[in-house]
Write a structure and sequence with these properties.
The protein is of the alpha+beta class. About 55% of the residues lie in helices and about 15% in strands. Strands 1-5-4-3-2 form a five-stranded mixed sheet. The protein is rod-shaped. The chain starts with a strand and ends with a helix.
């Protein structure tokens, strides 16, 4: 089967529970059959029905399994025109990867900082215990 090329206005016509198309990374998906099975509920899909759902899809952080399911729903590619809305994740994919990398680096830094704070707190508590125990013996 040859892959279809659909325009944004064609995708926009498919926005009901019984006929639900959406766009993720310029690929068009028919999520009609998956609507009832979606773990986040059908409302999530209906909110992006007939639209570009790239930002919403990426913001949630879907699993590899979810991406495989999405691949199975693919019906074509989006033929963009200048007037079509462009998701922010499509405009700067490299910067979004950089932001993700820096976010994970900052969370690692937070983990090390938290570990250090707990370690110092524990050492201070032990020192206070030894000091108080020494005072009681006198």
């Amino acid at each position: 089967m040859a892959e279809k090329e659909l325009t944004y206005s064609e995708v926009a016509e498919h926005k009901t529970k019984k006929d639900l198309y959406m766009v993720v990374h310029d690929k068009v998906y028919n999520a009609t059959e998956f609507c009832d099975e979606h773990p986040g509920g059908e409302e999530v899909l209906l909110d992006v029905a007939g639209q570009d759902a790239t930002d919403a899809f990426e913001d949630v952080g879907h699993s590899d399994e979810a991406r495989e399911i999405l691949d199975g729903l693919r019906v074509g590619t989006l033929k963009r025109s200048a007037a079509d809305p462009v998701p922010s994740s499509n405009t700067a994919p490299a910067s979004s990867k950089t932001a993700t990398s820096s976010a994970s680096s900052s969370s690692t830094g937070m983990g090390i900082g938290l570990y250090a704070a707990i370690l110092v707190g524990g050492a201070l508590a032990y020192g206070a215990y030894v000091y108080v125990a020494g005072q009681d013996k006198k």
